Amino acid sequence: MADRYLHVTGTAPGRFLTRKLGLPQPAPLRRWTLETQALDGPLLHLTAGDSSVTEELAALLAATGLPVTDRAETAARPAGIVLDATAVATAAGLGDVHAALHPVIRSSAPGGRIVVLGVRPSADDHHQAAAQQALEGFVRSLGKEIGRGTTVQLLRITPGAVASAESTLRFLLSPRSAYISGQVIELSGAAPDPVADWAAPLTGRTALVTGAARGIGASVASVLARDGAQVICLDIPRSADELKRTAERLGATALPLDITADDAADRIAAASPDGLDILVHNAGITRDRRLANMSPDRWASVIEVNLGSVLRTTDALLMSGTVNRGGRIVATASIAGIAGNNGQTNYAAGKAGIIGLVRSLAPRAAADHGVTVNAVAPGFIETKMTAAVPLLIREAGRRMNSLSQGGLPVDVAETTAWFAQPASTAVNGQIVRVCGQSLLGA
After folding, report:
1. Which domain holds residue 141?
2. 333 belongs to a structural domain
3. Catalytic residues
4. Which residues, in sequence order, are bridge partners of residue 82?
5. CA separation for the pair 425, 287 (Å, rounded)
6. Do 98 and 180 have their domain in common?
7. CB neighbours of 231 closer than 8 A, spacing ≥ 6?
8. What tens digit of pLDDT does each residue of 184-242 get?
């Protein structure tokens, strides 16, 4: 459904009126297209303190294809700013963060990307821990005040393993991350698998996407196919016709199957004789009622589809070896599972359960199977489901985030594709909210 408010505020009279009334003024987001595959402008590389990774990081940023400079005076309207704050270890050192960004923040280009690099807070040095944790509050606040469609992230890297950040920096410093802001992403030091072609990083990999007939699932399947994957699209048998059309459009395989069936894992394995490199758990349902009015079957059906089937099939496909070594598992959580939602105790419980699954399974899956496990947590995404929400609630959902607009299914899909990349080995156990930095939740 079209966001008419966004369209109106893009006109001169609309900007004048909303400014006078103090209403949100969302900026159109620049997403990936064939014509806009990269940010338009230079990348400014700044450093707070005496960093040990300056040269290695500079080489990595140069590999993104953006023109890089470390001189603010030569970077008029930078499209991206990367601030290396990995050396900040004291409260006084935070002054270097202010000193680096304060002179350039107003000159950054609309729709730009700001990434602050930090490290994990130390368990042994409370001064370093305080300073590095302070970066999280700084980033979340800057994301809420900067406006103009610009996003701000905190990326915690492992010193000595800067190369593990390449896929993440390429993603965050590109139009693919348009609806992600205020996020904290922590990388391990795991070495990335090689990528032969960054324009098609999933070439040679097989992906299965559940709930792929329409909406977010169809968009995920489309982006994975665009990036070179051979995709198997799974959805319930009663959606078989729509599933077939989606699969045919993508050159993919259609697999009509109820993911809650007892033999679902066996049938998925049979449909992928060479194994799966990417498993995307996207299928989900809602059966909303307040708990006092919720019947047992409404509760059970949502928990079974959104959580039970994910647990069961993931376990079976890992144990059978269907998910290949070096594989990627991506599940769909929700900000409802983080912040809760009126009338959705069943849905929020299931989506919070996905977060628990990811945090627990990720380290063990990596150690035992060489597989990463992550989750996307969408906020207000423009789908047929949200189009049916009453007008005032729908408008609140759109505006109550730092970007003052709803996201698109492709925003979730782009995040999933980043998780799925072979170079994203260091991205494991992460819950990334695709919500424009919603005002609800963490």
Report:
1. 31-186
2. yes
3. 347
4. 45, 115
5. 36
6. yes
7. 206, 207, 208, 209, 212, 221, 224, 225, 247, 250, 252, 253
8. 999 999 999 999 999 999 999 999 999 999 999 999 999 999 999 999 999 999 999 99
